[in-house]
Amino acid sequence: MEVILLERISKLGQMGETVKVRDGFARNYLLPLGKALRANAANKARFEAERSTLEARNLERKSEAQKVADVLAGKSFIVVRSAGETGQLYGSVAARDVVEILAAEGFNIGRSQVHLNTPIKAIGLHDVAIALHAEVEIKVELNVARSAEEAERQSKGETLTSADAIYGIDEDALRPEDFFDPEADRDNEDEA
């Protein structure tokens, strides 16, 4: 199906372009949300008549998105999750979690605006892309850690995936005598 785009849609085209899309995409997404019109002579004339209004509305949305982007730019958010000693999370941080974190900070972002290819499954610093508008995309940093203290250490550049980094223990220097009493084994042998 051919449609006339009423706004810029990433990976599809600019406002005013006539593009060919799959029928389902047009019927279920573009047409009901008012992002496109069916490409026929009447709709082309309607689009040309409303073009200046549509461009003004698009410019207004873009400027609002740019204001939010200016506030969000360079921000880092701390996410506290349970994880094993290797840094592997017991759950994951998905787009829904990112939206909840941003909402707690007062930002109204939709889940579809968060571009997270795969859920985050390890502690560390992760960049997440957020498309506030088709022409305004920013990256925010998520600091995924086991605690707020670890998040602070990670932000300073520490890697927290070993026992030494987590607990301050040097695993290589440990000996069995540090944990077990060698005399206890001899006492058990004498009793037997």
TrEMBL record:
Single GO cellular component term: ribonucleoprotein complex
InterPro entries: Ribosomal_bL9, Ribosomal_bL9/RNase_H1_N, Ribosomal_bL9_bac/chp, Ribosomal_bL9_C, Ribosomal_bL9_C_sf, Ribosomal_bL9_N, Ribosomal_bL9_N_sf
Superkingdom of origin: Bacteria
Acidic residues bias locations: 179-192
Keyword rRNA-binding annotated: yes
Family note: Belongs to the bacterial ribosomal protein bL9 family.
Name of this protein: Large ribosomal subunit protein bL9
Taxonomic source organism: Rhizobium lusitanum
